């Protein structure tokens, strides 16, 4: 016989962004609990609203399976006392297992005999097992936790009721002073308490009290009502999926409605109006069939259609106040020039340990110029980049960005165009902030991409030099995201940027303008910074499910290589893993690498001396390496791998015939130099020692 189990945790309203991940976490922990308790089940379902997190288990087994197992006790030699009677150790073991000493038998394990007993563990009934769901409920973790009353217990919001039922039976447990039962709560304003007759009644019983507990059903209702409104009015309503998810987790019984605002506010840029509606009021914006913004908005009420006109008027009033502010700031901001705003940045701190925003722009200008030349920007692009770098933070001190912080960069582009800046410069001001999330959109212009990289490198270097290095989950300045952005832009543009190269650009900038680095002089932290950025590259590459971890460890081990080359090296190694001679090739090259590590620091112009060769294999290897090295610099990574693979046989013959650590010091050094020259060629692929070829 199978059962249905239901647990609902009733709460004060949960923040919208917490609802969905918390419901998923509840499912995960429930499944783990059931598996640990050896309880078979068909499915674990979840329901959620702003006021409840619910889990429903269907097809739950009647009881745990019985267990017949052997328990191991002490060694036989201590199971008896000196008189041949059972020792206290044996007696205690038997007692602890719920059997008598008469049930003891012996088994040999690794040459030693031990005491064993067979014991039978009867499975618990489902009703007893499911009381443990109390611990599952209490074990949920949330991004923000709070205490209430005089309790030390922390949770996302105060718990107000608990439902725990196995079919029609209440499963008793208690969290703080809240006892589980079979009474849920309907909609805060439209419903009443609900006494559940059975766990299977949950969805429909709550629906009768104006609560749609299925989040997917609620979302479908909202989407359908929005589409109906759009069709009725010949509108296009842009359904932002993130906003839809958020709104869905703000309501228990959704009713979509439309409102309007005065057309005079359409003189304000669309981005400002959309931000006011979407980010501040959680409204969906409306356009005509050609995509032109209309003076209308769509929102979702947590309730039915009663008195809906009052709700519409209230929302219109709130939005109008917001738009009036936006219109005022937009008009006032245009009364000053970009130069005026840039001048004000001299007194605005980027960070008190680093300096002003004006100083940051000056550093970024120096970095951007170097990066722009390196990646091949033409003269006009370099001129646009230089102009953008001089002004790109100016909008931070405008009234609009002061009121709508999320519009930084966006307003900079708008105001720059209004004041005559060209497309490249204006776009770069906005694109400098990209990507704004781990998977966010990348800059579309080369000027914007370079400015974005330069700004992010400056931020990371400055915070590292100031001792504010991210640790654990603590990253208040989003340096991980910025490092990820640098890598993603470089990979997308196929620019051969590396961390050491960017650090060299920082050093050059510091030498040119040391006054800009007085508080953030590059120092010992640069090695940590290098690894920090390489870790972000590894994070991106780790998303490739086909990439073996040892290949990843291999290619990221040499941060001197460009990001694009590290990524390409991983693809090439992965491609050749199944080659018949791959194992032998890597073993030969790694043997060279291990021996080369014993070599001293040779001068860059050190020359191999053929007159010190003592056997034919040394000569043949030198000729093979010379042939490879001649074409190596211009070869792509695929060809480089093939050329290295061609050295397998000469290397094998060399080691078979040659004692590297010869007694003659000159001969030994010559041989180490020969191996080091080969090892240097392998660096394009990282640290081959990390490859698992066993």
UniProtKB/TrEMBL annotation:
<dbReference type="InterPro" id="IPR008909">
    <property type="entry name" value="DALR_anticod-bd"/>
</dbReference>
<keyword id="KW-0963">Cytoplasm</keyword>
<dbReference type="InterPro" id="IPR006194">
    <property type="entry name" value="Gly-tRNA-synth_heterodimer"/>
</dbReference>
<keyword id="KW-0648">Protein biosynthesis</keyword>
<comment type="similarity">
    <text>Belongs to the class-II aminoacyl-tRNA synthetase family.</text>
</comment>
<dbReference type="GO" id="GO:0005829">
    <property type="term" value="C:cytosol"/>
</dbReference>
<comment type="subunit">
    <text>Tetramer of two alpha and two beta subunits.</text>
</comment>
<dbReference type="Pfam" id="PF02092">
    <property type="entry name" value="tRNA_synt_2f"/>
</dbReference>
<keyword id="KW-0436">Ligase</keyword>
<dbReference type="GO" id="GO:0006420">
    <property type="term" value="P:arginyl-tRNA aminoacylation"/>
</dbReference>
<keyword id="KW-0030">Aminoacyl-tRNA synthetase</keyword>
<keyword id="KW-0067">ATP-binding</keyword>
<dbReference type="GO" id="GO:0005524">
    <property type="term" value="F:ATP binding"/>
</dbReference>
<dbReference type="InterPro" id="IPR015944">
    <property type="entry name" value="Gly-tRNA-synth_bsu"/>
</dbReference>
<dbReference type="GO" id="GO:0006426">
    <property type="term" value="P:glycyl-tRNA aminoacylation"/>
</dbReference>
<feature type="domain" description="DALR anticodon binding">
    <location>
        <begin position="587"/>
        <end position="680"/>
    </location>
</feature>
<dbReference type="GO" id="GO:0004820">
    <property type="term" value="F:glycine-tRNA ligase activity"/>
</dbReference>
<dbReference type="Pfam" id="PF05746">
    <property type="entry name" value="DALR_1"/>
</dbReference>
<keyword id="KW-0547">Nucleotide-binding</keyword>
<protein>
    <recommendedName>
        <fullName>Glycine--tRNA ligase beta subunit</fullName>
        <ecNumber>6.1.1.14</ecNumber>
    </recommendedName>
</protein>
<dbReference type="GO" id="GO:0004814">
    <property type="term" value="F:arginine-tRNA ligase activity"/>
</dbReference>
């Amino acid at each position: 016989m199978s059962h249905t189990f239901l647990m609902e945790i009733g709460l004060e309203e949960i923040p919208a962004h917490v609802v969905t991940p918390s419901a998923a976490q509840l499912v995960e922990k429930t499944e783990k609990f059931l598996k640990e308790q050896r309880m078979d089940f068909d499915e674990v379902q979840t329901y959620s609203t702003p006021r409840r997190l619910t889990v429903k288990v269907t097809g739950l087994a009647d009881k745990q399976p019985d267990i017949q197992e052997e328990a191991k006790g002490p060694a036989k030699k201590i199971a008896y006392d000196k008189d041949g009677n059972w020792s206290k150790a044996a007696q205690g073991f038997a007692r602890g297992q719920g059997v008598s000493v008469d049930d003891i038998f012996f088994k040999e394990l690794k040459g030693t005999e031990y005491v064993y007993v067979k014991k039978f563990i009867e499975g618990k009934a489902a009703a007893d097992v499911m009381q443990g769901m109390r611990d599952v409920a209490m074990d949920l973790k949330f991004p923000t936790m709070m205490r209430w009353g005089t309790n030390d217990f922390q949770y996302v919001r105060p718990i107000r009721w608990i439902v725990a039922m196995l079919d029609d039976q209440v499963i008793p447990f208690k969290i703080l002073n809240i006892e589980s039962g079979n009474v849920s709560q309907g909609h805060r304003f439209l419903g009443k308490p609900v006494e559940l007759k059975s766990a299977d009644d949950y969805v429909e019983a709550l629906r009768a009290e104006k609560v749609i507990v299925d989040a997917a059903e609620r979302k479908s209702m909202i989407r359908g009502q929005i589409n109906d409104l759009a069709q009725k009015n010949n509108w296009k309503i842009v359904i932002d999926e993130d906003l839809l998810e958020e709104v869905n987790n703000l309501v228990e019984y959704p009713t979509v409605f439309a409102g309007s605002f005065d057309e005079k506010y359409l003189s304000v840029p669309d981005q400002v109006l959309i931000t006011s509606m979407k980010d501040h009021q959680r409204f969906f914006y409306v356009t005509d069939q050609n995509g032109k913004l209309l003076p209308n908005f769509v929102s979702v009420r947590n309730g039915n259609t009663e008195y809906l006109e009052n709700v519409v008027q209230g929302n219109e009033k709130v939005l109008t106040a917001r738009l009036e502010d936006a219109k005022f700031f937009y008009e006032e901001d245009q009364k000053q020039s970009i130069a005026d705003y840039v001048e004000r940045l001299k007194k605005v701190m980027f960070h008190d340990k680093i300096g002003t925003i004006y100083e940051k722009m000056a550093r970024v200008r120096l970095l951007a110029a170097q990066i722009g030349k390196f990646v091949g920007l033409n003269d006009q692009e370099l001129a646009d980049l230089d102009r953008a770098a001089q002004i790109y933070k100016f909008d931070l001190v405008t009234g609009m960005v002061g009121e709508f912080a999320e519009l930084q960069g966006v307003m900079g582009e708008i105001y720059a165009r209004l004041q005559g800046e060209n497309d490249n410069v204006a776009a770069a001001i906005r694109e400098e902030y990209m990507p704004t999330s781990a998977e966010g959109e990348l800059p579309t212009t080369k000027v914007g991409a370079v400015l974005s990289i330069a700004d992010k490198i400056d931020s990371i270097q400055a915070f590292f030099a100031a001792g504010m290095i991210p640790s654990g989950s603590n990253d208040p300045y989003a340096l991980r995201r910025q490092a990820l952005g640098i890598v993603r832009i470089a990979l997308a543009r196929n620019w051969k940027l590396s961390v050491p190269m960017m650090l060299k650009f920082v050093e050059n900038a510091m030498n040119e303008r040391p006054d800009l680095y007085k508080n953030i002089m590059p120092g010992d932290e640069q090695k940590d910074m290098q690894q920090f950025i390489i870790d972000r590259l590894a994070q991106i590459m780790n998303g490739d499910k086909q990439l073996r971890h040892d290949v990843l460890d291999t290619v990221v081990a040499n941060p001197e290589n460009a990001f694009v080359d590290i990524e390409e090296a991983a693809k090439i190694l992965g491609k050749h893993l199944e080659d018949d001679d791959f194992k032998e090739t890597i073993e030969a090259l790694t043997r060279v690498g291990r021996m080369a590590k014993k070599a001293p620091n040779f001068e860059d112009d050190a020359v191999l001396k053929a007159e010190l060769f003592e056997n034919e294999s040394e000569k043949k290897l030198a000729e093979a390496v010379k042939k490879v090295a001649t074409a190596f610099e211009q070869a792509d990574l695929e060809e480089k791998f093939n050329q290295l693979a061609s050295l397998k046989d000469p290397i094998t013959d060399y080691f078979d015939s040659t004692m590297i650590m010869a007694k003659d010091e000159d001969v030994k050094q010559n041989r180490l130099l020969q191996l080091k020259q080969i090892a240097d060629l392998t660096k394009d692929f990282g640290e081959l020692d990390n490859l698992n070829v066993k």
